[in-house]
Design goal:
There is one protein chain. This protein is of the alpha+beta class. It has one domain: Cytochrome p450, CATH 1.10.630.10. About 40% of the residues lie in helices and about 10% in strands. It is built from 17 helices and 16 strands. The strands form 6 sheets. Strands 1-2-11-8-3 form a 5-stranded mixed β-sheet. A 3-stranded antiparallel β-sheet has the order 4-16-12. A two-stranded antiparallel ribbon has the order 5-14. A hairpin with a 5-residue loop joins strand 6 and strand 7. Helix 9 runs antiparallel to helix 13. The chain is globular, with a radius of gyration of 21 Å. It starts with a helix and ends in a 28-residue tail after the last strand.
Length: about 425
């Protein structure tokens, strides 16, 4: 294995599981782009790339940077066997077949029906919150609406919506500072089997019912229906993705607007700016900070050879802050010209739920701003899901707010200033030390 990358990156250390990096990774990302665009972590034996242009190429090259061994570093390193139907961690032709099936779920017809239901749900929640001085943007909004939407979409009974959120949340945490342990494999939630079995006896107009009936030609040319294992895997993946990404997006939008009241006023005056605000929030604080890939063959990167068999992290959060692409990338700016961010990936593995996430966030803030036009957030008592010291848990795969206390009708705190290159929010040096 080439060690030149390790030597070149001796002045900067990157570890996605470290609390101090997860809290504010952008100073480290900045140093990686400048000092080690191809970074090698010797301790955990993985590479990382941080520049926008490189990432664009590597997402597109799905034959070299494959997904079939997982999109999470620990899955790749432990060579975990994926359950049948894990379409997000598959390669063509199997991925092509399964993705085509899942795409039906996000058809314009199905989403148009959801639009009214999401709007009614959001309106009821904000009608209850509009006269309160205090609420939590995650517990009361972000943790409620996406969970209910994906529950309705799948056809899970309303009384079980909270259980869906509990299941998906429990899969995202590990002991702080340590990788996720997949030594026992990718354990999916088998309790979803009962929803599949129930819909077999009680069909309805929902995704599980549709998946039960779908017929397709698989990668071996066999015409068949989905197996029970594939069905349960599909439901697991859709429940997790449909809940987490939108939840985190709503939290980051709420925080960004609180810190930029002038831009919040712009959106209140012109709700047509909401889609632009969504894209800027996704760029500034992507819910997935990075995506993993397995290197299937030797490849030249940054005048170095990365050998076949390597694990690599594509640092989405870094690409979104690349000042070669984005002017003043640390600033939230809803009026920014819109080069494409990397928050939903790119190429054949572009996040299939991106349309639903964008639609939910748009409707949530359309309904919110009709009732509440100003708020502050209490960052001192907020809790980041990647850095939850109260529970000694963390996750390196999703980054967002677990709790975001919000208040109105009180004096705005001192302006929070976003860190620049090489500094954390408190002004201390970022980077987690040197090697």
């Amino acid at each position: 294995m080439s060690q030149s990358a390790a030597q070149d990156s001796s002045a900067v250390y990157y570890d996605p599981c470290l609390w101090e990096i997860a809290l504010n990774p952008y100073p480290v990302y900045c140093r990686l782009r400048e000092e080690a665009p191809l970074y090698y972590n010797e301790k955990y034996d993985f590479y990382a790339v941080s520049r926008y242009a490189d990432m664009q190429r590597y997402f597109a090259d799905h034959e070299t940077f494959i997904s079939g061994k997982g999109g999470i570093l620990e899955l790749i390193k432990e060579n975990v066997k994926m359950p049948e139907g894990t379409f997000i961690f598959e390669d063509p032709p199997q991925h092509t077949v399964h993705r085509r099936i899942v795409q039906r779920i996000f058809s314009p017809k199905r989403l148009s029906v959801l639009d009214e239901k999401i709007r009614d749900m959001s309106a009821r929640i904000f009608d209850e919150l509009k006269d309160r001085d205090d609420f939590d943007f995650i517990a009361d909004v972000g943790g409620q609406i996406p969970m209910r939407v994906i529950g309705m979409l799948l056809g899970i009974p309303e009384q079980d919506f909270q259980e869906v959120r509990r299941i998906t949340d429990s899969k995202l945490v590990t002991e702080e500072g340590k990788p996720v342990d997949y030594s026992d494999g990718l354990n999916l939630e088998l309790s979803f089997e009962r929803y599949v079995d129930w819909r077999m006896e009680n069909p309805s107009d929902d995704v599980i019912t549709e998946l039960l009936g779908v017929e397709f030609t698989d990668e071996n040319g066999v015409e068949r229906k989905l197996s029970q294992e594939e069905l349960v895997t599909f439901v697991n993946l859709l429940a997790g993705a449909g809940n987490e990404t939108t939840n985190r997006l709503i939290g980051w939008m709420a925080k960004s607007f609180a810190e930029n009241p002038d831009q919040l006023r712009d959106v209140v005056a012109n709700p047509d700016l909401i889609p632009q605000a969504i894209e800027e929030a996704l760029r500034l604080e992507p819910p997935p900070p990075h995506v993993g890939r397995y290197v299937a063959k030797d490849v030249e990167i940054q005048v170095q050879t990365m050998p076949a068999g390597s694990a690599i992290l594509l640092l989405v959060g870094s690409a979104n802050h690349d000042d070669e692409v984005f002017e003043n990338p640390e600033q939230f700016n809803i009026h920014r010209p819109k080069p494409r961010h990397m928050s939903f990936g790119d190429g054949i593995h572009t996040c299939i739920g991106n349309v639903l996430a964008r639609m939910e966030a748009r409707i949530v803030f359309e309904e919110l701003l009709q009732r509440i036009q100003d708020w502050n957030v209490d960052l001192e008592h907020a809790r980041l899901s990647s850095t939850s010291t109260s529970t000694s848990t963390s996750t390196s795969t999703v980054r967002g707010w677990e709790s975001l206390p919000t208040y109105r009708n009180r004096e705005r705190p001192a302006e929070y200033s976003r860190a620049g290159c090489g500094q954390s929010p408190g002004g201390s040096q970022g980077g987690g030390g040197s090697r």
